[in-house]
Write a structure and sequence with these properties.
Largest sheet: none
Radius of gyration: 18 Å
Helix content: over 70%
Shape: elongated
Number of strands: 0
Order of helices and strands: HHHHH
């Protein structure tokens, strides 16, 4: 992925201009981005004292991961806005609706519905792991 750099103020402005909300799923992705930024800064401090090509490579990798996660947060907010429900906050309701619709057999759900359900589970797990780590 080749994505443009976006700092926190640019992210907030983009979210505000699109009228997107910071759901738990969005915050979970931002939490990962924050972690990658933290690691990158620690690596940069070490690099400043002891420059090496391998450290520089890791610094770039963590910065790329941070940028990707900020954009992922934005794309999740966009998807939630378009679909009218939030992955974590409304995930159980979504799953219940699928169970009712397909009479308990979710394997009959469309590919899109199954992918949305998988995303609900993954984002909920990420949110739970981050809260346990606090």
């Amino acid at each position: 992925m080749n994505m443009a750099y976006m700092d926190y103020n640019e992210y907030k402005e983009l979210m505000k201009s699109a009228n997107y909300k910071e759901s738990l799923a969005v915050k979970a992705m931002l939490g990962r981005a924050k972690y990658y930024s933290y690691v990158q800064k620690k690596l940069q401090a070490t690099f400043n004292k002891h420059p090496s090509d391998s450290l520089q490579k890791f610094i770039r990798q963590y910065d790329t991961k941070r940028i990707e996660d900020v954009w992922q947060a934005f794309w999740i907010a966009e998807q939630e806005h378009e679909q009218g429900w939030q992955f974590i906050e409304d995930g159980e309701t979504y799953l219940s609706a699928l169970l009712i619709k397909y009479e308990g057999d979710i394997s009959r759900a469309s590919e899109s519905e199954q992918l949305s359900n998988d995303l609900v589970v993954l984002l909920d797990r990420l949110d739970t792991e981050q809260r346990q780590g606090e």
